[in-house]
Amino acid sequence: MILYLDTSALVKLFVNERHSDRVREAVSGARLIATHAIAYVEACAAFARLANERRRKALLSTLRGALDQQWPGWEIVDVTEHMVRRAADLAGRHLLRGYDSLHLAAAQSVYEVFSGAAQFQFAVFDERLRIAAQDLSLPLLAG
């Protein structure tokens, strides 16, 4: 299975939240993990907020270190002009935030590349992004 992680799913690998077990299970069973490059900065921002909320400065370093260990083993979708324009179209059509539209465009691209060759699932827990992915008929990871 090819599994695309948006940031809402990626963070669940490192932080215990609702559906973390489901994401970890899917990651362990996936043949390939893909995400957009922007997920790195989004995840680190989420880790920083969490460390601040918990008043545990060292938590940011711990979580980022765990992400750094996993990152090289994943397929990272880069920012390209074509991807940005595709994301802009999706943002307008589905009223998505900018980075969410980049994730959607990237997931759609990965799905198109592997269509027919391997099962694909889009792991996403942001409701608006999930609805947009359903509208595009992207197979979703069950929550």
Topology:
Blueprint: E1 2-5, H1 7-14, H2 20-29, E2 32-36, H3 38-53, H4 57-70, E3 75-77, H5 81-94, H6 98-114, E4 120-123, H7 127-135
Parallel strand pairs: 1-2, 1-4, 2-3
Helix pairs in contact: 1-2, 1-3, 3-4, 5-6
Can you describe this structure?
With 143 residues, this protein is of the alpha/beta class. The chain has one domain: 3-Layer(aba) Sandwich (Rossmann fold). The chain is 62% helix and 11% strand. It has seven helices and four strands. It has helices at residues 7-14, 20-29, 38-53, 57-70, 81-94, 98-114, 127-135, and strands at 2-5, 32-36, 75-77, 120-123. A four-stranded parallel sheet has the order 3-2-1-4, with helices on both faces. Helix 1 packs across helix 2, helix 1 packs across helix 3 and helix 5 (81-94) crosses helix 6 (98-114). The chain is globular, with a radius of gyration of 15 Å. The two termini are 17 Å apart. The mean pLDDT is 95.
Shape: globular
CATH architecture: 3-Layer(aba) Sandwich
Query: Which structural class is indicated by helix and strand composition?
Result: alpha/beta
What's the helical proportion of residues? Answer: 55-70%
How many discrete structural domains?
Answer: 1
Largest sheet, order of strands side by side?
3-2-1-4
Q: Classify the fold: give the CATH topology.
A: Rossmann fold
Separation of the first and last Cα atoms: 17 Å
Number of helices: 7
Element order: H for helix, E for strand: EHHEHHEHHEH
CATH class: Alpha Beta
- The overall average pLDDT, rounded, is 95
Which oligomeric form is depicted?
single chain
Task: Bin the strand percentage.
Answer: 5-15%
Low-confidence region ranges: none
Quantity of strands, as a count: 4
Task: Say which CATH homologous superfamily is assigned.
Answer: 5'-nuclease
Instruction: Output the radius of gyration.
Output: 15 Å
The description of the largest β-sheet is: 4 strands, parallel
